């Protein structure tokens, strides 16, 4: 446990992690969000710290407490998460985006509480949020390693492969919400890991066994550290 700092596997590296859901306000009392609890992203941030990295965690609203020894930036909306990532991305050697970012937000936010006024149906107009991972993939420079996540409910491999390629990730960690032991609010995960193929356009696909989110965090970071060495070799 008391290993000299300079021998730790991520010593000297800056790691940026996104975690948790976003909240997109509709009016002063309501918002759109999702079931993310932040457990996976927080486990990665804490593990990166324990492996010797200098960690920045950009977190949406969660009930987890800010981890010790980690620079935690609290945000609410996808746009705020995007701003925080843009501010920290250039310094990051490894970036892992585990946040469940709201894809859409209400096109307008009512300054007053929306009243029902006897209506049976109402229409909500939504507009797309910036894709933070895609932005990072488009702006990364040599020496930056980028890891995305993907949550799917069907066609996991083909959907995840598209995300790996279109967002220019070094690695993508995909899970199926319907697999027992995977998904929101549980302490374990079951993932499929995709990396760009070395010679073909077909990605390299690995199926990892069910493990705790802590153990998975360590496996992901070890894999990224190894990728970093091959990418820079
Ligand atoms: N992501 C992001 N910004 C967004 C949406 C997603 O940074 N506005 C990131 C997530 O943090 C995750 C990856 O992109 O690392 C994939 O998220 P996911 O929701 O699975 O995929 P999407 O590209 O949003 O596509 P869809 O939801 O339609 O499947
Ligand atoms: Ca999405």
Automatic annotation (TrEMBL):
Pathway(s) where this gene product acts: Cofactor biosynthesis; coenzyme A biosynthesis; CoA from (R)-pantothenate: step 2/5; Cofactor biosynthesis; coenzyme A biosynthesis; CoA from (R)-pantothenate: step 3/5
Domain DNA/pantothenate metabolism flavoprotein C-terminal residues, every copy: 10-226
Keyword Kinase recorded: no
MF term (GO), any: phosphopantothenoylcysteine decarboxylase activity
EC number, as in UniProt: 4.1.1.36, 6.3.2.5
Part of the full-length chain shown: 190 to 422 of 427
Chemical reaction(s) catalysed: (R)-4'-phosphopantothenate + L-cysteine + CTP = N-[(R)-4-phosphopantothenoyl]-L-cysteine + CMP + diphosphate + H(+); N-[(R)-4-phosphopantothenoyl]-L-cysteine + H(+) = (R)-4'-phosphopantetheine + CO2
Protein name: Coenzyme A biosynthesis bifunctional protein CoaBC
Biological function: Catalyzes two steps in the biosynthesis of coenzyme A. In the first step cysteine is conjugated to 4'-phosphopantothenate to form 4-phosphopantothenoylcysteine, in the latter compound is decarboxylated to form 4'-phosphopantotheine.
Cofactor(s) named in the record: Mg(2+); FMN
Family note: In the C-terminal section; belongs to the PPC synthetase family. In the N-terminal section; belongs to the HFCD (homo-oligomeric flavin containing Cys decarboxylase) superfamily.
Region annotation Phosphopantothenate--cysteine ligase: where it falls in the sequence: 15-233
Cellular component, GO, one term: phosphopantothenoylcysteine decarboxylase complex
Keywords, ordered alphabetically: Decarboxylase, Flavoprotein, FMN, Ligase, Lyase, Magnesium, Metal-binding, Multifunctional enzyme
Residues noted as binding CTP in the record, renumbered to the chain: 103, 113, 130-133, 149, 163, 167
GO biological process, one term: coenzyme A biosynthetic process
Cofactor: how bound: Binds 1 FMN per subunit.
Organism listed in the record: Bifidobacterium pseudocatenulatum
